[in-house]
Amino acid sequence: MLRRTFIRLRLAWRKLLAIDATPQAIARGFAVGIFMAMMPVLGIQTIAAIVLAFLVRGNKPAAVLGTLVTNPLTFGPVVWVEHVVGSYVLYGRHDPRDAQVLESALLSIDEAEDLPIAEAVTHAPATLMGTGWRIYGAMLLGGLLLGVIFAAASYFLVLWAAGRAKRKRELRLARRMAAAMKRVVLPKTPRETDATPAPPDAENR
Predict the structure, then answer these.
(1) Using CA atoms, how far apart are residues 86 and 82, in angstroms rounded to an integer?
(2) C-beta atoms surrounding 75 within 10 Å
(3) Which of 13, 32, 75, 177 has the fewest CB atoms within 10 Å of its CB?
(4) Cβ of 127: how many Cβ atoms within 10 Å?
């Protein structure tokens, strides 16, 4: 699963840089996608990312690609880190009892992968919210803080990468056009024939 997830993320990165839009729009869209990926709101991450991309004039496909950071492999660790960060901010410590409740919830979500899509989509957010406000509130706060940090970092990273990819595409296009121009065969003007009469024979002189 790790190798498959890595391949998917690499393909998503290539698709991101191949989007036909300005680097600024791509970076804004991807940043809001990363922000929503950090929020423990399973089931509405993609829709919320598209809405945010519309509001900030970001690229919507880039926003969708940004949400792919949260996937079945990374979801558990991301939520766990969010809860730890939120717990220290709110309560000054990470309660082991809360950790056990969250661990049970994550196991329940993991076991629900075999459910129909409609049930799985509603099961995950209901399970997280069912942990109680103390735990879920810490996750929300941790997700908010991490979302802002990673969204800002991803914005500048994608802005640089998308700008670099765009310059490469423009350079390749310019080279192709130059090569095409060289292959164009211009019509040649016919050479004027030498109309100078041949010298007369000695006998006819």
Answers:
(1) 6
(2) 18
(3) 177
(4) 17
